[in-house]
Amino acid sequence: MLLKGKHTVLEALKNSPDTLSKIVFCKGIKFQDRVIEIADLAKQFQIQLITLDKRAFEQECDDPNTQNVIAYSQSIAHMDIKELISKKDRFQKVVILDHIEDPFNFGAILRSCAAFGIDAVMYSKHRQSSINAGVIKASSGAVYHIPLVSVSNIAQSLQVLDKAGFWIYGTDVNNGTSLPKFSPNPPYALVIGNEKKGISKTVSKFLHDRINIPMHGNMDSLNVSVATGILLYQLTQAD
Prior knowledge:
By secondary structure, the protein is α/β, with parallel strands linked by helices. It is built from 9 helices and 11 strands. The protein folds into 2 domains: 2-73, CATH 3.30.1330.30; 81-237, Alpha/beta knot (3-Layer(aba) Sandwich). The strands form 2 sheets. It has a 7-stranded parallel β-sheet with strand order 7-6-5-10-8-11-9, covered by helices on one side. Strands 1-4-2-3 form a 4-stranded mixed β-sheet.
């Protein structure tokens, strides 16, 4: 996996240096602030650091938004749902993504989850954005600060959580308890639906309660990452 940009590479160095195999600078990059820190950490963790001329660098990555620094990374570590269940006392607040397709939305949701103290994020291995460079960049490094669980079937995983004693909540634009009046009962799992289709029918069967975000005027929906941020702020304030 190719990481792009100073902030993204620096976050990987600070939080998961063992996943990095090589860092590449473009010749002419200004050695100041984050670039100096990247170079120092690469030396500290004995990660290969090379500088290429512009033509060679563009052969490595032709994206114009790299800020002249890229890094090669292994996959981000994940935990198993069985481990999450066995450590339920630690994982009291879980967010479950029901097939989020856009990498920016995925990353932004991870960022909100980390900001509001969510204990873990679960997502599907299928019909879902994978953890890639775009997700890592959009998360502003949050991907390194929150445990991730990747599962084959969201509905079956909810059934497992239900049996383990988790309350399962989801959003509903037409029905459900108004968010300001809703009080969650930990341990709980909040399901976030797909950008276009929302929460799937097979998944909605496992919801114990539905939450509605009240809105004014003619607006009846929000971008999924924006809605998630609002939900998490309100729910975590109610803890």
